[in-house]
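seq as requested:
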Amino acid sequence: GIGAATAKALAAEGFTVIAAARRLDRLKQLAKEDSNIQAVELDVTDQSSVDKFVQHLDGKPVALLVNNAGGAFDAAPIQSADPKIWQKTYEVNVIGALRITKALLPNLRANKSSHIVVVTSTAGHAVYENGGSYTTAKHAELAFTQTLRLELNGEPIRITEIAPGMVKTEEFSKVRLGSDEAAAKVYEGVDAPLVASDIAEAIRWVAQLPAHV
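struct tokens:
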């Protein structure tokens, strides 16, 4: 989805992209398509996986971190909410961003001019019924991003939040709602929902702006 599109967009601009996610088979396919993309397995909900990822970098300088791991896993009202789903949603969207950002901050600082992009959602700026697990997590991710910006103020690290609205990707709504049919209904009546490449273009653009912007 957005991650793959972003990897392609940045690689096309000459970035050496380390595409890191859980499904290594998909990453390897992505890497086959562009020599500027490297595939590395990473589960941001697992601290040992994050530690292994940092070891893989072996001190190589990191200029840009794109925190894109996320997801929604239900569409239930609060009165019937499953706390385990809420925990999973928070773990992926919020704690995952914390783990990888914290792990890479020493490297980003050493680079002297670096950039952290956090992909949140308009769900972090508004709420809707039956979306509590996701909107709560995305509000927390927004707070994480804004806090990070304040704490790093004065350092040569830019912080950017990208907050997409409705994005039609292969899996997001299917994972959340459980079927292709239910996922398709999400986009009914929307002539032109955003697609992954639109969000990737926004990330590509901000990543290439001068350091003072």
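The mean pLDDT is 91.
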